[in-house]
């Protein structure tokens, strides 16, 4: 029994020139393909294994890994280091065992903005958002209450001025909270 009896697969070699060689008996593994040394094999060649259901598997040769052999039971063969060619990346170029395929990004940036913006990855968001829109009527109602309940005109003018300042900055939460804090201090509430 020689080593080729273990080779249950069949592959063909696609050269960069477009030439196809084979089929050749082979043993296909995840990152290595063992095959008969019937034809020269070089980095950048594509090994194609036809699948019974139609779609062929394509592997880019990174290092041919030629082995001289010992005797008739272990004849010369290749133990090629390979990378599976993806459909998205196309053929991919390998020069001297160095892949020029574009690697997956090492960093992904998500830009999230807007009111109550969140980003959940592999998790469930069970939060509840409550937004109260302070419309013009809220500030007008507050001014009306002040006019009804504050008898000192100077104090009323001061409080109405504070409410007008909050009304003008209602769409800027930082400015609004500062004005509200200042109003509470000045109004001695």
Description:
The chain is rod-shaped. It is built from 3 helices and 9 strands. A hairpin with a 7-residue loop joins strand 4 and strand 5. The chain has 189 residues and is an alpha+beta fold. It is 24% helix and 24% strand.
Short descriptors:
six-stranded antiparallel barrel, 3 helices, 189 residues, alpha+beta, single chain
Poorly predicted runs are 87-96
How would you describe the shape? rod-shaped
What's the number of helices? 3
Structural class: alpha+beta
Write the layout of secondary structure elements.
Layout: E1 9-14, E2 20-28, E3 32-36, E4 46-49, E5 57-63, E6 66-67, E7 77-84, E8 94-95, E9 98-99, H1 136-149, H2 153-168, H3 173-187
Antiparallel strand pairs: 1-2, 1-4, 2-3, 3-7, 4-5, 5-7, 6-7, 8-9
Helix pairs in contact: 1-2, 2-3
